[in-house]
Amino acid sequence: MEKDRGLPFHDLQASDVKAQSGTSTPVTHCVEKSQPKHPSRASLWLMKSCESWPFLYAILRERDSRRIFYFMSLNFSFMLVQFLYGIATGSLGLLSDSVHMLFDCFALGVGLSAVVMSKWPPSARFPYGYGKVDTLAGFANGVSLLIISVEIIFEAFERLLSGSKLNRIGELFIVSTLGLIVNMVGILAFDHAHHHGHGHSHSHGDHHHNENLHGIYLHILADALGSVAVVGSTVLVHFFGWSGFDPIASCIIAVLIFVSAIPLVQSTAKTLLLAVPADVEYNLRDTLAGISTLRGVVGYTVPKFWLDDTNHEKDHGHDNHHHHHAHHNHNHNHKEPSSHAQDCHNYEHSHSHSHSHSHPHSHTHEQHEHHEQPTQQVLGVIHVIASRGADLADVQCRTVNYLRERDMDIVVQVEREGEGRCWCGGGNKSLS
After folding, report:
1. What is the pLDDT of residue 265?
2. Does 268 share its domain with 336?
3. Contacts from 187-195 at CB under 8 Å and sequence distance 24+?
4. Can you tell me whether residue 183 is helix, strand or coil?
5. Which UniProt keywords apply (predicted)?
């Protein structure tokens, strides 16, 4: 499938991306400043008070980030209470749960930053936007859950062998019960987003967008299970007098946390490694084979593909596409005429200002999602090698149109055979 793997996508310049692809994704994946969705009076007051703090204002403006921020504040406050009572009672379950809550605060902070960053507009270095920040945060949260689980298991065995005893069981029961209530608040707050991304969603884009919230949900669920373990072990210690129930319960919960975090780590790792499903890869192989048959094309190098996981609705991009054509219908090839083909917007201007020629149902995606097998747009970059006598603009536009017909938004770089001016050196390589 691949004849050469080159540098990462972000090494390309933004001007090259816009000029060479002729597609709308790097341009239209911008952030619209939507109005806050039904904020409370307290939220409105906070937003008004922090207008001079852009990052905090951005947090309070969006429902997801606002929800994370509020729960993180509640979680951190109760974490201090749990930690102090854990020291006073000598409970491993309470101490480990408070340390876990500290990591949860960190995880919530990472997830909060990811939610805000994922809505940033594209930049010169990241022309496709910051959609994978959500996935990266989900991966980080999943890995941290695995590490915490292993640490709790080691501490549980150490406490079990040492035979440490619990003190002030009554206060321990009260604090752990309050901790369970706090975590139940978090579960109720994030349960809808968790199920929306992993149970009720019918699009891959929603799935990847919510991997961040899924990681946060798992952290809160792990905390709730830890609180259940502390409450249960406290009751058992009170009636049977054996302190070993506490580390055993902690160990069981740690195993459950570890098992629940594995699917999250696997799914986010595949996304970050640009892995695509088997059916998509099969179609990509056919598409690459078709590129080699286009007129003027002798081969290709550096094919890199990934699925669009930015959770932007397709019709949003279509509605705004016509605003950007006027800004990119000039030639970007004046510096490197042999390594970068000119923009093919003018070439296609007579066809349409939208994706309608390749997406006949593009303006009714949501109406047809439940009637047809949903397809997620493929993004990527490819270096096409043109024959020595071919017109670079013609080769590029043929390739771009061919890819568009297959719902692929690909950065197409064109170079004549034998020139080898590109960083990947594709023109000098044998393509037989």
Report:
1. 92
2. no
3. 187/217, 187/220, 187/221, 187/224, 189/67, 189/71, 190/67, 190/71, 190/216, 190/217, 190/220, 191/217, 193/64, 193/217
4. helix
5. Endoplasmic reticulum, Ion transport, Membrane, Transmembrane, Transmembrane helix, Transport
Q: Is the pLDDT of residue 413 over 80?
A: yes
Give the domain extent around 405.
Answer: 9-29+276-428
Same domain for 109 and 133: yes
Kindly indicate the confidence band of residue 362, based on its pLDDT and cuts at 50, 70 and 90.
very low
CATH number of the domain to which 162 belongs: 1.20.1510.10
Which pLDDT does position 218 carry in this prediction?
86
- For residue 250, the model assigns a pLDDT of 85
Phi then psi for 335, rounded to 5 degrees? -95, -40
Longest dimension (CA), the chain: 89
pLDDT average, residue stretch 194-223: 63
Question: Residue 305's beta-bridge partner residues?
Answer: 380
Joined tokens for residue 320? 């705004």
Phi, psi of 94 (to 5 degrees): -70, -40
Q: What is the pLDDT of residues 228-267, one digit of tens each?
A: 888 888 888 888 888 888 888 888 888 988 988 999 899 8
Q: Are residues 302 and 250 in the same domain?
A: no
Provide the token pair at 187.
């579960």
Q: Residue 224: exposed, middle, or buried by beta-carbon count in 10 A (0-12, 13-18, 19+)?
A: buried
Same domain? 68 vs 22: no
Domain boundary pick from 272, 290, 312: 272
In this structure, the answer to whether residues 255 and 171 fall within a common structural domain is: yes
pLDDT at 329 over 50: no
CA-based end-to-end distance of the chain: 13
> Which pLDDT belongs to residue 429?
56
């054509």: which residue's tokens?
A: 325
Please check whether residue 329 is in contact with residue 148, taking contact to mean a CB–CB distance below 8 angstroms: no
Shared-domain flag, residues 263 and 285 = no
Both structure tokens of 384: 């096409």
Q: Could you tell me the two tokens for 394?
A: 């013609």
**For residue 402, pLDDT beyond 80:** yes
Residue 46 within any structural domain of the chain: no
Strand partners, 299: 385
Domain check: are 255 and 333 in the same one? no
Residues 214 and 265 in one domain: yes
**Domain endpoint, select from 272, 300, 318:** 272
Residue 45 belongs to a domain: no
Total domains present in the chain: 2
